[in-house]
Amino acid sequence: MAEILDQIVRELFAGNAKAVAELVEKALNEGFSPQEVLNDGLIKGMNEVGVKFKANEIYVPEVLIAARAMKAGMEILRPKLVETGVEPVARMVIGTVKGDLHDIGKNLVAMMMEGAGFEIIDLGIDVPAEKFIQAVREHKPQIVGMSALLTTTMIQIRENIKAFREAGIRDTVKIMVGGAPVTQKFADEVGADGYAPDAASAVDKAKELLGLN
Ligand code: B1M
User: Fold this and answer.
1) Co-location of 127 and 174 in the same domain
2) Number of domains observed in the structure of the chain
3) Separation of alpha carbons 126 and 178, rounded Å
4) Residue 30 sits in the same domain as residue 98
5) What is the pLDDT of residues 3-14, one digit of tens each?
6) Which end of the chain is more exposed for a tag (fewer CB within 10 A), N or C?
7) H/E element, 62
8) E-strand spans in 7-90?
9) Which atom of ligand 1 lies at the shortest distance from residue 145's CA?
10) CA–CA gap between residue 110 and residue 202 (Å, rounded)
């Protein structure tokens, strides 16, 4: 593996946004393809972050810092990826459900998913069912993620899934749910396709649901 790509992995893991952006630029100038820089640099680095996070060897602040470095690299890389027509592995619409303003966990999931090569359409917080439905119609994602942090808002997930059924779009997407009060049991009860307890597991679960593993 080329040293410069390994350097991207190391600097991303360490959360050095400036270094990652510079290295991505340098790697592209040296002739590495945007795809190589993405897969063997940024995604590989973010993958290592996910593994360590899952093993409780690093915590939320480190993941957020690494994700910021990933974003800095992606800003340089994105236009080149578009130019060369590199397709994302899948498209995901994500949001925090209606009535709920918590977004730290949801953002973390979105960043890890982006780190795994997904295209993310982030609807933000306090997202009503109609907005999820509109986004599904507009963006045609393969997967929709719903996050809820309050026991009073997690029931909104059930309402959203019901609204998806009524709108006739339920079977066009996989639905993954998560957030502190959400459990596998709850996900099963409300008819979600998958549940993930943390951001790194969310990547694995999404890939599993879409048959990408
Ligand atoms: Co609020 N809050 N909060 N809060 N807040 C909690 C959730 C609470 C547990 C605190 C407590 O009382 N101990 C409690 C909920 C109690 C309950 O429902 N049983 C609570 C409350 C009551 C409230 C208010 C009602 C307080 C008030 O105003 N009286 C109010 C509600 C506002 C609203 O939403 N309508 C409120 C407000 C806020 C702030 C705005 C101040 C702030 C949010 C800032 C923000 O998000 N931008 C806030 C915060 C920060 C918290 C705590 C302290 C931290 C939440 C957090 O970010 N955790 C929280 C207490 C706690 O958890 N210790 C608390 C870190 C984050 C990385 O974890 O979000 O769980 P988490 O995400 C994880 C996983 O859950 C999972 O992956 C993430 C990363 O590993 N995950 C998914 C999340 N979404 C996923 C989606 C997936 C898959 C996995 O697939 C799609």
Assistant:
1) yes
2) 2
3) 15
4) no
5) 999 999 999 999
6) C
7) helix 60-84
8) none
9) 91
10) 9
